[in-house]
Amino acid sequence: MEITTLTNLGVGLGRVRLGSDEAAKEPASRSPAERGEGWVVLVAFALPGERVRARVFRNHSNYSEADLVEVMKPSPHRVAPRCPLFGRCGGCQYQQLAYTEQLRWKQRQVAELLQHLAGIEFAVAPVIASPRPFAYRSKITPHFQAGVPRGDGDRATPIGFLKQGSRHAIVDVPRCELATEAINQKLTAVRAQVQAGIRSGEFKRGATLLLRQSLEGVTTDPGAAITEEIAAVSPEPGAGQPPALKLRFLARDFFQNNPFLLPAFAGFVCAQAAAGGARFLVDAYCGSGLFALAAAARFERVAGVEVSETSVAFARENAAANGIANAVFFAGAAAAIFAGLDFPPGDTAVVIDPPRKGCDETFLRQLLGFGPAVVVYVSCDPATQMRDLGHFLAAGYVLTAVQPFDLFPQTRHLECVITLRKAG
What is the distance in angstroms between the CA of the first residue and the CA of the last residue of the chain? Predict the structure, then answer.
């Protein structure tokens, strides 16, 4: 079969013709396969323009999934993957694709999501590349399943990530090419310790491990307080370059895992929020205060809200430690901040960075009811972001910028920032 495109899940897509040519004469109301346009087959690790042999392993109501058996005609953009586990480990989708092409496809996929989910065409800016295509992750979470029969009592328990195409099987990963070198060095000792614990019966069931790098080194303690330093990202106009921002938070808490692209990423968000001249900033889903504190110099007052009380406590500590006096933080649901906020909506910018599932209806209703002048929407899932975009467009907001960032090279994931301004 021929591979014609990549899905937003990073999988090659092709069509196999089913039935006779008479199927092409069927009414347009019938499915593409019924009309003879071809049955969709998704082939992981196959690239657009390639002719491949594939073996179907799972059927769905309107498509099939297949393993890549042989690349008969390779793409000119195919490269040798760095990791020997690529193709078996499900952590990466693009190691076989040249990095410049990864960026081009991610840009195209954001544009397609805009068209299909939000119903608009908009010029998506080129994806901003990571300074490091490999060895960039400052956090990994390998898994293992203790007590699972393996058929060989002398064989070590796999410690790693889910196998490609499997919902349960784990591929043993002694080294991750996406992780920093410090994490990989620590991983060797952690794996040996876990294997010893499994053999001694310490682990009665599987678990997820944590390895996170910070200024203090690599920790495996989820409850450890760690420090991340972010290079200056948002200088006040005319004030010169400010010092780096230092943020403390718990190792288990959410924080962006590509510190090498983080300054440019946070700087863009702050610049977009301030570009319209708003005097006040609200950082919903603020975590330990990244965007609020990075942008504070550009605004008269800043308010952050976060459901995690421990994250809010760290945000307050981080404000004090960095000498930032115009930022306040509240613990509670993001949707509740607008009720008691005394910022004038027409002079306020709001930054939102919701979970992968996007914004819930209660939050969107209250945000749009407040009606800030500018909304900067940060998302690790452009599909849910573009779904939510329709609500803003219906409420009178105008899309002014779409900027993807490749915080996750070699994978299908990316971070996307869209800027919306209230019409009039």
Answer: 52
Active-site residue, selected from the candidate residues 50, 177, 306, 415: 415
Q: Considering the domain boundaries, does residue 89 fall inside one?
A: no
415 in catalytic set: yes
Q: Do residues 144 and 255 share a domain?
A: no
Is 385 within a domain? yes
What percentage of the chain has pLDDT greater than the value 70?
91
Least confident of 64-68, 165-169, 327-331, 344-348: 165-169
Co-location of 56 and 108 in the same domain? no
| Digit-coded pLDDT (tens) for 207-258 | 999 999 999 999 999 999 999 999 866 555 554 455 789 999 999 999 999 9
Are 292 and 176 members of one domain?
no
Q: Is the pTM of this model over 0.85?
A: yes
Q: Is 26 a catalytic residue?
A: no
Residues 166 and 160: their CA atoms lie apart, in Å, by 13
Phi-psi region of 285 (alpha: psi -120 to 50; beta: other; left: phi over 0): left
Catalytic one among 89, 92, 286, 380?
380
Instruction: Quickly tell me which residue has 């769905």 as its tokens.
Output: 60
Q: Where are the beta strands (DSSP E) in 10-103?
A: 11-16, 39-44, 51-59, 63-73
Q: Which residue has the tokens 């060797």?
A: 188
Residue 208 pairs in a beta bridge with 143
If asked whether residues 181 and 260 sit together in one domain, one would say no
